[in-house]
């Protein structure tokens, strides 16, 4: 039996998930919480196998709650359930210890699939999330020069401007850009710029 706790500040959404899971014989919802502090207290009392939690909640957000829960109960699996698909939010939840991340516009069938996969010690990240989004900072290995170039790309500099700043050739900058694209599994210039803007302070 999979035991579950749901944390979400919109009660109607909790009610919808509970109603959907009610007919699943292998899942039992032990309780619900409308803010992060309630979630932590509930987990301490019930110690469920799985926690499905929103990120933005009153009193204590899902990131802080996840860190506390994983510190006290490392075996409890946590799935983020959020409307935010920004890379930073995904990184923060992944670094906090979640085993899954689902977008709120996903179907309830996908929520059910995620719960069952994570319960079997797997991981589940929404199809809408790219590989780059779920790669943690620690998993990205860039050279010192690549980090410098990525920062400058994030500041809106062109390849020629970067070459002038770093006193290297434009062709060298272009080569580094290609290497960064490959390492980050990014497909093109637009995605590289977006990634650089989001991550320019990380390196």
From TrEMBL:
Entry keywords, A to Z: DNA-binding, Phosphoprotein
PROSITE patterns: HTH_LUXR_1, HTH_LUXR_2, RESPONSE_REGULATORY
Keyword Cytoplasm: no
CDD domains linked to this entry: LuxR_C_like, REC_NarL-like
Signal sequence range: none
Residue ranges annotated for the Response regulatory domain, each copy included: 3-119
InterPro entries documented for this protein: CheY-like_superfamily, NreC/VraR/RcsB-like_REC, Sig_transdc_resp-reg_C-effctor, Sig_transdc_resp-reg_receiver, Tscrpt_reg_LuxR_C, WalR-like
Protein's UniProt keywords contain Phosphoprotein: yes
Modified residues (4-aspartylphosphate): 54
Domain of life of the native organism: Bacteria
Record-linked SMART domains: HTH_LUXR (SM00421), REC (SM00448)
Ranges for domain HTH luxR-type: 135-200
PANTHER family: TWO-COMPONENT RESPONSE REGULATOR
UniProt name for this protein: Response regulator transcription factor
